[in-house]
């Protein structure tokens, strides 16, 4: 039995996954797993896609490398996809959403090429990542949160921290599960 949950924070690039994950990690006992960075740093990819200007993730390598840690719990998985991770490892899926105009400005600031920018805006407008999360996980663990302003981050973190407190209370080992002395 895990003593700490695993939380996926997902959404279209630019919605605020990393800032949410960083703030939550600093204010909790959970470790931030920035999947996009780790794919690049640890070679969990099959090379670079020049058209999409991103790494082609080797999902088998990614799962093999993270499986043992996720079984133990205690992680915030920060990635634009969530349906790869087994249901049994995930306790909460946060799907961050942003208004298209806000998202456009953020991606433009990152110098996204027009085609990549439009692809991500379309995914956000069509609620692609929300639909993927709802299809992959039980509805009770998928939560949609908005991330347009800095106060949204603060409110979202408070909501997730409240969920964490409840999770710990509901999943604390009972006396018969504690090690005997």
Which descriptors apply to this entry?
181 residues, 5-stranded parallel β-sheet, 7 strands, two-stranded antiparallel ribbon, alpha/beta
Can you characterise this structure?
With about 180 residues, the protein is of the alpha/beta class. It has seven helices and seven strands. It has helices at about 15-25, 35-40, 60-70, 100-110, 115-125, 130-135, 150-170, and strands at about 5-10, 30-35, 45-50, 55, 75-80, 90-95, 140-145. The chain has a five-stranded parallel β-sheet with strand order 2-5-1-6-7, sandwiched between helices. The chain has a two-stranded antiparallel sheet with strand order 3-4.
What is the overall pLDDT average? 94
- Report the principal-axis shape: globular
Give the C-alpha Rg: 17 Å
**Ends: how far apart?**
19 Å
Would you tell me the structural class of the helices and strands? alpha/beta
Tally of separate helices = 7
Strand order of the largest sheet: 2-5-1-6-7
Relative helix content:
40-55%
Series of H and E elements: EHEHEEHEEHHHEH
- Spans where pLDDT lies below 50 across 5 or more residues: none
The main sheet comes to: 5 strands, parallel
**Total strand segments:** 7
Question: Can I get a quick summary?
Answer:
The protein has 181 residues and is α/β, with parallel strands linked by helices. 46% of the residues lie in helices and 18% in strands.
Topology:
Elements: E1 6-10, H1 17-26, E2 31-34, H2 35-42, E3 45-49, E4 54-57, H3 59-72, E5 75-78, E6 92-97, H4 100-109, H5 114-125, H6 128-136, E7 142-146, H7 150-170
Parallel strand pairs: 1-5, 1-6, 2-5, 6-7
Antiparallel strand pairs: 3-4
